[in-house]
Design brief:
single chain; two-stranded antiparallel sheet; mainly alpha
Length: 526
């Protein structure tokens, strides 16, 4: 192969295309369901404006990251460079719907107002990303790899892996069988007849089981001929139409929007840095500044065309790399997505494919990324990584409790923290440690890593950073402001004092000696 002209497509791109493509498809199906069934938006808005704009954004991002991978391959002379995956941010998808768009829609009685607020939310976040692009490389340089990958593992376990795992076991005849099809191929290196990609086989088998049960009258998987027939009514050709006026109309809700847009913009910043670090650990080093600014610019274009969902570099580049994906899978996914979005095909896909047949792919990605935090960092940092998982687990637990109480027509305030505590539910603890989980996990893991490495001064600096972030509500809180969690911030200052005191006065053996003479985990277990 000519090193100056990398191959655009290799056989492994088929596997990555169907894996990554189905991931994108699943997310588009979910956001379409949120728009239609939660926000009650008219199909003319969903399929005529929002999805075409979202498709344009995804097309631009996947093409850009394919080009970036091509440039890296050409510069390095390598033929194994894998493009960064990107798409609509999954956590933000739910945040913008349930925290911004739904309350405003209910308050005004107008889904258009909710859509406009969502556009403004993305507008603000886009600028946070673009500004953050210039400080991203510095953050990546001073932050331990275990902290970057550890907090990423927390996201993958709590918010990527849990939901598909639950869905699989709720519909096990489809979910578990499709998961087995994925596992034996992507983990066990089994090739299917004719080299058919495992993702395609899994979807096909899931459809056969679901529709077979429908024919037999069992309706296992929620498929319906009536739904399928009705889905064709949304067929048509729709291109994005500028929505600049709607973006600025949403500024009337700016006070509500800023409470979440700025902290979640910072979340995007850190998450993108984490994912660039994850790709670097897998062998592909992409420029952090260009990644972050591209996410911001492309998200801005998307929202100006009517898309209320932010763009993000996805977790999972090492996973697509492991199954043979290189450059072409990203570009091919972009082409497929823009066709699905502009021709209204998403409507038919929603009625044709059981979502649970796609869920195993997300679980696989979560497994791979969670393990990477341990495989690509020193063994001694493993306890720090576990600490970094805790805020994400807490945030997930709080979300489940809030959802359950909401479904019962009540909330935590009505039930009372004391009553919850009596049955072992420490809700306030979940609230505090889970607030700003990305930054919380990053700071806690960094402190622990530097303590393990006996770099007490650096650990103290991160404790001071934690105090500042906490004081202004970026972590251990749910809103930006002044003195949001003052007691927790004061506690971080106390931690910093302890660490700086250790840096000046503590006597420790060199790490190389300690590593062979002391095993606190084994000692505790014994």
């Amino acid at each position: 192969m000519n090193a100056s002209k990398p191959a655009i497509w290799v056989p492994g791109d088929w596997n990555a295309l169907f894996g990554f493509g189905t991931n994108i498809l699943l997310n588009m199906l979910v956001l379409t369901g949120l728009l239609r069934f939660v926000l009650k938006m008219p199909d003319s808005l969903v399929f005529g404006r929002i999805l075409p704009a979202c498709g344009l954004m995804l097309f631009m991002s996947t093409m850009y990251y394919a080009w970036l991978a091509y440039q890296l391959a050409r510069t390095t002379g390598r033929n194994d460079v894998t493009a960064l995956p990107s798409g609509t941010s999954v956590p933000h998808m739910f945040v913008v719907v349930f925290v911004i768009m739904l309350p405003i829609t209910l308050r005004t009685g107008d889904p258009i107002k909710g859509w406009e607020a969502g556009l403004t939310w993305v507008f603000v976040q886009s600028f946070v990303l673009m500004i953050g692009g210039f400080i991203g490389p510095w953050i990546r340089k001073v932050t331990p790899r275990a902290a970057l990958l550890g907090t990423l593992a927390g996201v993958s376990i709590a918010f990527i892996s849990m939901r598909p795992a639950l869905e699989m076991f709720m519909t096990p005849l489809i979910g578990l069988i499709c998961f087995a099809i994925i596992m034996v191929s992507w983990l066990g290196s089994v090739r299917y007849f004719g080299g058919i990609p495992a993702g395609l086989v899994a979807i096909a088998v899931g459809m056969v089981i679901a529709w077979g049960s429908t024919v037999l009258g069992l309706n296992y998987g929620g498929m319906s001929l009536d739904k399928l027939a009705g889905s064709f009514s949304n067929f048509g050709f729709s291109v994005p139409i500028p929505a600049v006026g709607h973006v600025f109309a949403g500024f009337e809700f700016l006070g509500i929007i800023l409470v979440t847009a700025i902290p979640f913009g910072i979340y995007d910043l850190v998450e993108a840095i984490d994912n660039v670090e994850s790709a670097a650990a897998a062998g592909d080093s992409f420029p952090t500044t260009r990644v972050l600014t591209a996410d911001g610019i492309i998200s801005l274009i998307g929202c100006l065309m009517g898309n209320p969902f932010i763009l993000a570099v996805y977790i999972g580049q090492p996973g697509w790399k492991a199954i043979g994906g290189r450059i072409g899978y990203s570009a091919a996914t972009g082409i497929a997505v823009i066709l699905l979005a502009w021709f209204g095909i998403i409507s038919v896909m929603m009625a044709l494919i059981p979502v649970v047949a796609i869920a195993p792919i997300l679980l696989y990605i979560g497994m791979l990324i969670g393990s990477q935090a341990f495989l690509e960092t020193p063994r001694s940092h493993a306890p720090a990584i576990i600490l970094g998982l805790v805020p994400h687990v807490a945030a997930w637990g709080k979300l489940q409790i809030d959802g359950a109480l909401g479904a019962a027509g009540t909330n935590v305030a009505a039930v009372g923290l004391d009553k919850l505590g009596q049955v072992g539910v420490l809700y306030h603890g979940l609230q505090v440690i889970g607030g700003g989980a990305i930054l919380g996990g990053l700071v806690l893991t960094s402190i622990a890593v530097f303590v393990i490495d006996r770099s007490f001064s650096r650990a103290g600096v991160f404790a001071l950073v934690g105090a500042a972030f906490t004081f202004f509500g970026f972590m251990h809180g749910e809103a930006i402001g002044f003195a949001q969690s003052p007691v927790v911030a004061l506690a971080y200052l106390g931690v910093a004092a302890v660490l700086f005191g250790c840096a000046k006065y503590a006597t420790t053996a060199p790490p190389s000696v300690e590593a062979h003479t002391h095993n606190p985990v084994g000692q505790a277990a014994g």
